[in-house]
Queue: 3 jobs
Job 1
Amino acid sequence: MAESVSTLDETVLGPYLEQHVSGFHGLKAIEKFSDGQSNPTFRVSAESGSYVLRRQPPGKLLKSAHAVDREFRVMAALGETDFPVPKVLHLCEDREVLGSMFYVMEFCDGRILWDAAIPEVEKPERTLIYDEMNRVLAALHSVDIDAVGLSDYGKPGNYFERQYERWSGQYRASETRRIEPMETLLAWLAEHLPADDGRVSLVHGDYRLDNMIFHNDRPEVIAVLDWELSTLGHPFADVGYLCMQLRMPGGVGGISGLRGRDLAELGIPSEQQYVASYCRRMGLTGIDNFGYYVAFSFFRLAAIVQGVAKRALDGNASNKNAAKMADFVEPMAEMGLEAIT
């Protein structure tokens, strides 16, 4: 039975989960999480406990977008290690059940920190939280992809070339008007693609503060979320993406940024300090051409945001504010150009 983005049929879902999720019984309520722009996500409450259901949006989707099956696979693989991910419980590839693919995972009780300045904690803990994010990112890039069964999780070849082709194609497929800064950024990135240095790791693709759950009482990551964009690729892409948040003003594209804030006063490392900490953990002397990785991150996020806006026009966006996202594409492209000038 097909359902809308914001609702699920309890009469269908309850019996299905009792049949396919071990121990599940007594569905009581389904509540959609209000945040997030891509895959609609729901808290499912039952007599047996709390769960999270994450689904593709219904309707026509861009090629390779909303890959909840890939999310399920990578979290299942990482669940066999000590890397912090939710325990995944079931993947439903039968679109007839709810109208689109979905999976179910455990509900992790902890803190999601939506504001990059983390005003709810004191300066010493804020410093520890940012260092913990750095540590977990280095741990991700150190995962033995062969040992966890993910050696075929991405295509071979130059990661940035492949990503450029994918996201420039996605951008063109969802383009609604010509944006000159985006055209300039697209051209520059194509002309300055870094050579393939052979460095390959599991990359998250959307690694930022609000895509992880912290322990309620400690500056400790207990779960990294939203693996839709994960693949095998170049680890510096994740580092550039994370540092992009330091360069963004608050509220652009639904992401909290720190542009113009006094990072030292907040206890948050500067971009140079953050990259240096990552390099120390990974045994590197530094990252050359870092501006490219930041600019590339802005380009890819702008392409994603344009896709969200296009889905709003098509009537199948997850977030009620999705239509406004088109306004953020141009400033994101401009910030990408700042990173390379």
Job 2
Amino acid sequence: MRDNNIIIDIEHLSKSFGDQQVLKDISLYIRKGEFVTLLGPSGCGKTTLLRMIAGFLQPDEGKIMMEWDSKGGKTEFLDVAKIPPHERPLNTVFQRYALFPHLDVYDNIAFGLKLKGVPKDEIDVRVRKVLKLVSMSDYEDRDVNSLSGGQQQRVAIARSIVNRPKVLLLDEPLAALDLKMRQDMQIELKEMHQKLGITFIYVTHDQAEALTLSDTIVVMNEGKIQQIGTPTDIYNEPVNSFVADFIGESNILNGTMIEDRKVRFIGYDFDCVDEGFGENVPVDVVIRPEDIYIMNKTEGAQFTGTVKSCTFKGVHYEMYVDTDSGNELQIQDYNAFETGSTVGLVIRPDDIQVMRKERVENTVDCTLVDETHIEMLGEEFECKPVSGIAPGSSAKAHISFSKIDLMDHEEEGTASGEVWFILYKGDHYHLTVKTESGEYLYVDTQDIWDKGDLVGIRILPEDITVTEGDEQAK
């Protein structure tokens, strides 16, 4: 039975543009009166999802179920895929405000009501009410071109909410504003949401904005939902390294879960609160910079390090410390520690977040060409000799993260790609490389690359192990 508090229920939604799939089996429900933020990097699919809810795009697969008030007064849930945007019980505020330059503030806000044939007296009451709500009561006669960016945004929001939608969609509405104005508008948007009591669905790539505004955050990447939760849950309990890195600042480190409540990383064993991972299992460990205790004395410390840099950030000092085990940690503290000094460090069990690794090696679909060659990533690679698999058969190629070399020039590699995502792991970088074939490779390297760099991909034959299906080679 459907929860009566749900206003939108998205079921197995997928969308492609040509050969590129931008949404992959998205399922999500949104409650009445909730402030939900779709958060993720450019190209993750968040705006496509919003535009499908609005009706500007049609899904390839799946349903968008929405609460609907029929003319008979009955409330029901309908799949709105076939219903045009202007008939859906929602309005959209875009990054570009799309105000009518030939109309003043009052008539911009009243435009939709006039189209619907709302009586003039009611239009006046509703327009003046929303002008007050967005703090624009003295601006009704102003030319919209004479307004600041923040004032234009208020008018765009007022024009949307004057129609009394059940849901307000906001597509990066503050992106064009300067920092101070954006921060002021965040506060105003939060207050508007509380006063209106309607559902807000907000798109942004700004993590701080999402943490400030939201009741619920939906973190997206590569067309998939990574995590759904409250701002506190998302920040304190990230489910994978992408979320941990994208939301706030983090130390993300390779570790081993020795047993329940005990994890090893940066060369030391630490007590933690996590259970159920098994014994001697590779894991990722997340420590927020503010959760590492730093002190001038080494007595009583769990481990020691040397301060590499110390920068004042206005509220706190940000330090990078090289540990005695060779890892670099980012630390935030209200006190400054002198560069070059030896410090003691402590991490409490409650401040250690252990996550399952999403993968421990590259596993790539391939086709066996002959005993020592495979086709993968759209190219032919030489590999270790393969037995027991017939040429032409589908197989799996297994490659360690550290056994892939990236070259400065694309033509220097057997295949080529683009650096898509960079994760610093304390003593090395873990890169996601999107190949020309559209597949992903994961690379551990000491070399410094920038996101967007075009690279050649070279893998030595002895570093490619081929198996049939998911069965490991003997």
Job 3
Amino acid sequence: MILVTLGTQDKSFHRLLAAIEKEINCGNIKEKVIVQAGYTKYDSPNMEILNTIPKDEFVKLIEKCDLLITHGGVGSIFDGLKYGKKIIVAPRLSKYHEHTNDHQLEVVQELAEAGYILPVYEMKELKGALKQIKKWHPKTYQSNNQNMINLITDYIDHNTGKFFFKKCKRK
């Protein structure tokens, strides 16, 4: 199963769904496709399209999918990385009025260069990415959350008293 996530951006990302539809019609996608479309309105006899998906159900779909195709939203990408999924990412681009700026382009470029995702910058690249993803092995993502928590905890443990006493002296 392929899960497609478009996030909750209030602008349409019709371009990605049209490209996926084309690849289904050409026979390059044969798996079931489930779409979390958000604000994107798109009708398709070939895809199961849902506006929103409750978080617990969304996590189950990510765990179950063989491939995640998503927009360049950090949350969507890292959800896929967390569960070790192969991910094709198409950033929303401002030139198509899919976003107000091109920050998703920057995110996608960084993660692609690091080997975590396969990028699709223009929809004509989707066919090639679908072929490449079958043999491609992404870099394994390891969260750095615990290191950050340890740094913050250590800082608080060693500095809270200093701040507390400075505040008390002012009064």
